[in-house]
């Protein structure tokens, strides 16, 4: 099993919306992938609740059966739409993929 974790720091304002509005949009977009991309075994999105200089605003935790399943998810057209939007509103991204 592959666990895929991504965290984003967002711009204060982007695409005409506040950081909080964009964080909510990311959460909604990613959560909507659950029923669309069959390779997703588990997916949850959280928005930070504790202010800290080290904090990221949004985190994604997801699980996939294999590296091939993760690759299929990453290539999926609906995921590509999410990536395009998120790329416009973020200032930093961190990611880790690991096998269990």
From TrEMBL:
Residues 2-98 form the Stress-response A/B barrel domain. Transmembrane segments: none annotated. PANTHER family: BLL2683 PROTEIN, STRESS-RESPONSE A_B BARREL DOMAIN-CONTAINING PROTEIN. This is Dabb family protein. It comes from Planktothricoides sp. SpSt-374.
